[in-house]
Specification:
The protein is of the alpha+beta class. Helix content is 20%, strand content 37%. It contains three helices and nine strands. The strands form two sheets. It has a five-stranded antiparallel β-sheet, with helices on one face. Strands 3-1-8-9 form a four-stranded antiparallel β-sheet, with helices on one face. Belongs to the 2H phosphoesterase superfamily. ThpR family. Hydrolyzes RNA 2',3'-cyclic phosphodiester to an RNA 2'-phosphomonoester.
């Protein structure tokens, strides 16, 4: 099996722990995989495998992004897929122009490459549970309002059989802004 990659924002430890604790309080037994706090992130772009040997160029291009740090706010719990049997349960995020600008900057930097990125529109989220296995969803799942700083983004390598699964291979601080 080949190695896969993505570009994302790691959720800071304290915020991830709070989100994980709230999710665990729901006693969610409907999904096969619950995301450990150490793996909580926001995917900006999923790359998949590096079929054309472009990882070095990806890393170099990401270093050209110039944006200032910003703050994100968790805005409740939502799902992807059938609401009765959702594929994914996630923490939604409040609309944030800085996050959208960062995602678009990443996309623009990678556009000239031969990557087969996900064509679906970007929906910022933090996956809490995935892979529906059956049962009844909790009646009342909620997350307290939570805000956290984003001061970097990273190129991640996926290790499906390890914990944590997502290893940062290069991190890019946000410091500038045009």
């Amino acid at each position: 099996m080949s190695t896969h990659y993505f570009i994302g924002i790691r959720i800071p430890g304290q915020a991830a722990e709070k989100i994980g604790h709230a999710r665990d309080s729901w006693e969610l037994t409907t999904h096969k995989r619950l995301t450990p706090p150490a793996d909580m992130h926001i995917t900006l772009i999923f790359i998949g495998e590096d079929r054309f040997g472009e990882l070095g160029e990806i890393a170099e291009r990401l270093g050209q992004i110039d944006q200032v740090p910003f703050r994100l706010q968790v805005a409740g719990v939502k799902t992807f897929g059938n609401p009765e049997t959702p594929r994914i349960v996630y923490a939604a995020l409040s609309d944030n122009p800085e996050l959208m600008a960062l995602q678009q900057a990443v996309e623009q930097q990678l556009d000239p490459l031969q990557l087969a990125t996900d064509p679906k529109p970007f929906v910022p989220h933090i996956t809490l549970a995935s892979r529906w296995k059956g049962g009844s969803l909790p009646e009342n799942w909620q997350l307290e309002e939570l805000e956290f700083a984003v001061d970097s983004f990273s190129l991640f390598e996926i290790h499906p059989r390890e914990t944590p699964r997502y290893k940062e291979i290069q991190t890019y601080p946000l410091k500038g802004g045009a």
